[in-house]
Amino acid sequence: MTVWVGTSWKMNKSIAESGEYARGLLAALATRDAGAVRPFVIPPATAIATVAGILGEDGRVLVGAQNAHWEDSGAWTGEISVPQVADAGARMVEIGHSERREHFGETDETVRRKVAATLRHQLIPLLCIGEPSTVKDSGGSTEFILEQAARALDGLDDDHVARVMIAYEPIWAIGEHGRAATVDELGEPFAALGREYGGRVAGLLYGGSVGLDNAAALLGIEHVDGLFVGRTAWDLEGYLRLIDIAAGHRRSTSEDHQ
């Protein structure tokens, strides 16, 4: 089973800094036994080509884009299309992050269009879902995230759904002021996601205040196939330590099943 460990750098890192990180990652992976761990890195748009140029030929690390428009071309000032990010070397597109929903007006419908466009061009959609604290406090987390996912995947056949990755990122747990979720809090949402999408999608990931202190416990939650990490992985050493934790988890899980 593949264990995914990915990071989005958001609006951070220059082209030079991105290249330095990518070269360091490539060199470090050459000396590590990462096993079934599959890393992915999502730099800012300005650095996709640089990072993909360093990591792309190796093939072990997927490079992604943080956003892409649903149209292939046109009068969409300031936007970037899926063919354009693919041309820069991206093989994955992050879609529907709560920051884009809150600050840039993304809706379930635009998210659905972006997922469809990403699949149309043979890239991997990384669909982000997650509920605000008000929904969590009212006991509606599971219903909320299942509805978000269903709307984003509406109209797709099973073959297309199988190429989608879903990252559950509760809004109350992400960002600088987020509160780390406990294993108990995540059990029910992932049980529901597992019932609906386990074995149907490319992976079910967790993101939200992931750190070196809780990564192993998060990976131990049933139906969690990997981690989508923010600040801890912006530093290369932190990202490499997360990959090591995931590799150790994968080895111990394999031994338990022998």
Automatic annotation (TrEMBL):
It catalyses: D-glyceraldehyde 3-phosphate = dihydroxyacetone phosphate. It is found in: Cytoplasm. The keyword Isomerase applies. Keywords: Cytoplasm, Gluconeogenesis, Glycolysis, Isomerase. Pathway: Carbohydrate degradation; glycolysis; D-glyceraldehyde 3-phosphate from glycerone phosphate: step 1/1; Carbohydrate biosynthesis; gluconeogenesis. Transmembrane segments: none annotated. The keyword Isomerase applies. It comes from the Bacteria. Pfam families: TIM. GO terms for cellular component: cytosol. Its main location: cytoplasm. GO terms for molecular function: triose-phosphate isomerase activity. Its EC number is 5.3.1.1. GO terms for biological process: gluconeogenesis; glyceraldehyde-3-phosphate biosynthetic process; glycerol catabolic process; glycolytic process. Homodimer. PANTHER family: TRIOSEPHOSPHATE ISOMERASE (PTHR21139). Belongs to the triosephosphate isomerase family. This is Triosephosphate isomerase.
